[in-house]
Amino acid sequence: PSSSVPAVACQDCTCSNEIDPSSGLFKIVCEFQQCNEICDLGYEYVETNPYDCCGKCVQKQCVLNLNGTKQLLNEGETWSPPENMCEHYTCMRNGDTLTALSSQIICPHFQESNCHPDTIQTAANGCCKICVEIDKACKLISMKTLVSRHGCQSEHEVEMPYCEGSCNTFTKYSAAAAAMEHSCSCCKETRSSNRTVDLLCLNGGKITHTYMYVEECGCGHTECTTTAGLRARKKRSSMLL
């Protein structure tokens, strides 16, 4: 009595203390095996084989435990803690096991004193700080060039300054608008004047040509569209002719 008895698959049979009146022997009591279908977090109970009595717990997600808080990640998914966007965790498969691998973004050296005022912002990765550096900011660049027009040319190079440099431009997600928020700013002239220059022609004559002389540059808001960019490039090209 109480001993295990070999029996039909997927059943547990035991020799009981109860006597079978017809045979005078102890009765054999059988019951179907109870499968444990409760799995740990990140695992799922799966019927793996029709010949097996019970299924098994199969890992479906990575379980990340940070400071007592558990985070579930699907295979291939990457997640960063809200308080530290420089740290990334990616759920990777190795055979039958899913493991969360950590990686760290190393930000380039950032010195706030090198930044143009009001241009400091967080990069698209949500980790590093970026800005428009003072030496790369929008500014007036001196240039001298010969002016040509209708086959006539200036006798000497003419000073023709232009604007060049970076402005504070960004694209980020706006939770309030539930859409991407774009802000575009371009480096352009803020003060200019018309100047004239005499051009010498091959026939010995002279013609007077008026051109725009840039005196001051700054960042001006513009539309973040391809059309606006093309229009700006065409305008620049026409000014240099």
UniProtKB/TrEMBL annotation:
Pfam families tied to this protein: Cys_knot
Gene3D superfamilies per record: Cystine-knot cytokines
Keywords, sorted A to Z: Disulfide bond, Secreted
Subcellular location: Secreted
InterPro entries: Cys_knot_C (IPR006207), Cystine-knot_cytokine (IPR029034), Glyco_hormone_CN (IPR006208), Mucin_vWF_Thrombospondin_sf (IPR050780)
Signal peptide: none
Disulfide bonds: 152-201, 163-217, 167-219
Ranges for domain CTCK: 131-225
Entry-linked SMART domains: CT (SM00041)
Protein name: CTCK domain-containing protein
Upper classification of the organism: Eukaryota, Metazoa, Chordata, Craniata, Vertebrata
